[in-house]
Amino acid sequence: MYPKFFKTMEFTAQQIADFLGGQVEGDPTVKVGNFSKIEEGKPGTITFLSNPKYSHYIYDCNASIVLVNKDFKPEKEIPATLIRVNNAYECLAQLFSMVEQSKPKKNGVSPLAFIAPTAEIGEDVYIAPFVYVGENVKIGKNTQIYSHCNIEDNSSVGENTVLFSGVHVYPECSIGSNCILHSGVVIGADGFGFAQSEDGTYKKITQIGNVILEDDIEVGANTTIDRATLGSTIVHKGVKIDNLVQIAHNDEIGENTVIVAQTGIAGSTKIGKNCVIGGQVGIVGHLQIADNTQIGAQSGVTNSVKTPGQVIIGSPAIPIQNFRRSSIVFKNLSELQKMVTELKNKVEELEKNKTPEK
User: Fold this and answer.
1) Among 168, 182, 249, 286, which one carries the catalytic annotation?
2) For 49-65, what is each residue's pLDDT tens digit?
3) Which segments of the chain have a pLDDT < 70?
4) Is 286 a catalytic residue?
């Protein structure tokens, strides 16, 4: 069950509908003070239905209010009060955001934090115990930095940004405003650069670039974004990155692209705007991925995608229409092999029994 989110406050269905721009269907005075999942709905809670796979739960759901899409058509009577909205999932996110914003924010700098004398700290910043802030670092107003974060020399963090515990920002890196970096994120570690000598040993190529994260970016736990060899590794505005993602040196990620967990992007690859990259995708280096590309989970991308708006999947990744046709063939390979073997044997038999020409 979700923790109590309205604390001692409760809201009616009508109040919630007014906030979301929705329409009440049922009792507008029913009150809720908590969330629940639709399969675990309890009186006094609000839940949602957006995935048709969960539709059967709504008919026995004990939640007091259910958010549904405007085009939802019930097959029988529903006990809960409905609030019809354009997008139930998006509206749930709005409620979550409202709850988060209502929580009291911490502020002030702990005496147990180290702040270099040349650092510039904005107004209403929270810096927890055991944070390290290096020389010439700039931190914007209303930013929150939790314990055991390191922000090293000459780096900057914008306004209204949150760095959860254990984030490490290497020197010379820039993080924008309204960003969220979850625990274990490393920004600006060295790119994987080595030159092989004649004797077979590897000599490190010093990485002298940096990382730039623009505004409105979220980075999941234990994700790493490497500094450039020269220039900058750039993550543009609005990008959302899941946990355990590796973005290599000199990569560039376009605006509003989404990257799901365990994806690895090799160096000097340019990802376009509004792309969706599924989980466990591998992308080799020095590629160009066009805007609005969708890459299916566990794909291996070995060539540039030059046509915008394609959906690709597989390893090596190919357009999804080709992949589906190939999948039909692949799952029948054993039968096809059997047929080919039988045909081969018949041809050999025919050749063997063939009457010689006179």
Assistant:
1) 249
2) 999 999 999 999 999 99
3) 1-8, 355-358
4) no
